[in-house]
Design a protein that fits this description.
Layout (H helix, E strand, L loop, with lengths): L3 E5 L8 E6 L5 E3 L6 H12 L10 E3 L5 H4 L2 H6 L4 E5 L3 H5 L1 H16 L7 H16 L9 E4 L4 E4 L2 E7 L8 E5 L4 E5 L23 H13 L5 E4 L8 H24 L5 H8 L9 H16 L3 E6 L2 E6 L3
Parallel strand pairs: 3-4, 4-5, 5-6, 10-11
Antiparallel strand pairs: 1-2, 2-3, 7-8, 8-9, 9-10, 12-13
Helix pairs in contact: 5-6, 8-10, 9-10
Bound molecules: zinc ion.
Zinc ion binds next to helix 2.
Length: 322
């Protein structure tokens, strides 16, 4: 059987999130939505439309540990017997979310926001949001978590789905591919708009791993798959996966080129580039722009076109040879 899309509300700019339901041979849910009364009611209604209740769910499978995708995991365990399945890569975000958030906050505070050139108030806003996310997260008891591995096969809807590692938007993100029916549960890897390369705390706590190059590598993996239909984490089903990837690659290339032009014209810091390239965003929504700009700079640095110099604690960018 095919996954049934259930759209759940979120309080975020991204809009609603999709969870997917398999009713046969046993009820399985992919992702959970956020932990809110509105989302919980919508989930119950979505299950009821197929004659099911939360207590009927046998397994809940998480694609990646972002709050719109796993926020209600703990609540689901409190209202039924479902095991929560997540890649071992993302396990800690489920079992110990506060500790993970603390690591991310420490990295942003000590190694990321200042060198990006953010003003004190903007720094505080980002940290305040993360602190709120940490405080409002609820851990899932370890005995209710079943980790899976990249390369495993998950049984859903009477078929075997391959677990693929798709870093870029989240370093631990997994997507699920069903080769005989060419179905792909794409999470936030393949969306109607290119995914945001979120900056994460690195394993050593200091040295950032570039996210946009990882995302482009994941696109390359997707290009090697035969995908008839994709089930994204947000928005309607996708029937033109390969065309969409082509368009998104093109858009990323042209925005990267714009970033280079702005550097030529005198934009020197990350935040100057954000304010120039995302002038159309309200100021409190520019964090997404910050991640994109850092991504374009990572590509330009990797290509050897731009060099980064830390001056007075702030990263400044120069076109090589200018
Ligand atoms: Zn999402």
């Amino acid at each position: 059987m095919k996954p049934i899309r259930i759209e759940l509300p979120t309080p975020f700019d991204v809009g609603p999130v999709n969870v997917y339901l398999f009713t046969e041979p046993e009820p399985v849910l992919v992702d959970t939505g956020v932990d809110s009364e509105e989302s919980w009611a919508a989930l119950q209604a979505g299950l009821a439309a197929h004659g099911l209740a939360v207590a009927d769910l046998q397994r809940v499978i998480i694609t990646h540990a972002h709050v719109d995708h796993l926020g209600a995991a703990a609540r689901l365990t409190a209202h039924g017997n479902a095991q929560i399945h997540i890649a071992d890569l993302g396990y800690e975000w489920l079992a110990a979310p506060k500790r993970k958030w603390e690591q991310r906050i420490a990295f942003y505070r000590d190694y990321f926001l200042v060198p990006c050139g953010l003003a004190a108030q903007a720094q505080q806003m980002v940290i305040a949001y993360m602190t709120y996310a940490a405080e409002s997260s609820t851990p899932v008891e370890p005995k209710r978590i079943t980790p899976f591995k990249v390369g495993d096969q998950l049984a859903m809807g009477g078929l075997k789905w391959e677990v693929l590692h798709m870093p870029g938007h989240a370093s631990h993100q997994t997507c699920f591919y069903q080769p005989t029916t060419r179905q792909f549960i794409s999470a936030d890897m393949l969306l109607h708009k290119a995914p945001t390369p979120i900056v994460e705390e690195p394993p050593d706590g200091k040295t950032r791993r570039p996210s946009l190059p990882l995302l482009l590598n994941s696109f390359t993996v997707l290009e090697g798959l035969d995908i008839a239909i994709a089930y994204p984490g947000h928005g309607p089903l996708i029937h033109n996966a390969h065309e969409l990837i082509r368009q998104q690659r093109q858009r990323l290339q042209s925005r990267k080129q714009e970033a280079l032009d702005h550097i030529r014209q005198g934009c020197q810091t990350v935040i100057e580039l954000v304010n120039t390239m995302y002038a159309h965003y309200p100021e409190n929504a520019r964090i997404a722009g910050l991640w994109m700009v850092v991504g374009y700079l990572d590509l330009l640095k990797a290509e050897g076109v731009v060099e980064e110099r830390e001056i007075g604690g702030v990263w400044r960018y120069f076109v090589k040879g200018d």
